[in-house]
């Protein structure tokens, strides 16, 4: 029986990071950290609602700048949120012409439900880890993301 091909041993640590990020992306996509049942939010809805919750009401232009997405993509995504009553359009409190999107109570409830399921899945995956290791891993992830945001010029609001 022939041995299946496996990735070569990485020459540089960044090659190992690339490989592990690819595997992580697969696990996240497949829901391996915990099957979502009650949150039931599509990925784009989860991310948009998280941003609206963290930053407050935003216009299509502000969302476009924050995510680096074109207005037509965001119009489709926000229309789906509004249609599902997870977000609502409101006038700009500063008197601007563009209307803004704000997370609704239902959107906040569903977001929290989805977030709780994701955290429960992570608790399961990290169950055998020492608390200090989990905290260190979280610090490294935050630092990694902040480096990306610095290069991209699009910081994500953090609590």
Secondary structure elements and pairings:
Elements lengths: L12 H18 L12 H13 L4 H8 L3 H13 L3 E4 L9 E4 L1 H21 L5 H22 L7
Antiparallel strand pairs: 1-2
Helix pairs in contact: 2-5, 3-4
Write up this protein.
This protein is mainly alpha-helical and 159 residues long. Strands 1-2 form a two-stranded antiparallel ribbon. Helix 2 packs across helix 5 (105-125) and helix 3 packs across helix 4. The protein has 6 helices and 2 strands. 60% of the residues lie in helices and 5% in strands. One of its GO terms (molecular function) is DNA-binding transcription factor activity. Residues 32-134 form the HTH marR-type domain. Pfam families: MarR_2. It comes from Streptacidiphilus pinicola.
Largest beta-sheet details: 2 strands, antiparallel
Radius of gyration: 19 Å
Per CATH, the architecture of the domain at 38-125 is: Orthogonal Bundle
- The mean pLDDT is 88
Would you report the number of β strands? 2
- SSE run: HHHHEEHH
Order the strands across the largest sheet as they lie in space: 1-2
Given the C-alpha coordinates, what overall shape results?
Answer: globular
Domain HTH marR-type: 32-134
Organism: Streptacidiphilus pinicola
Pfam families: MarR_2
Protein name: MarR family transcriptional regulator
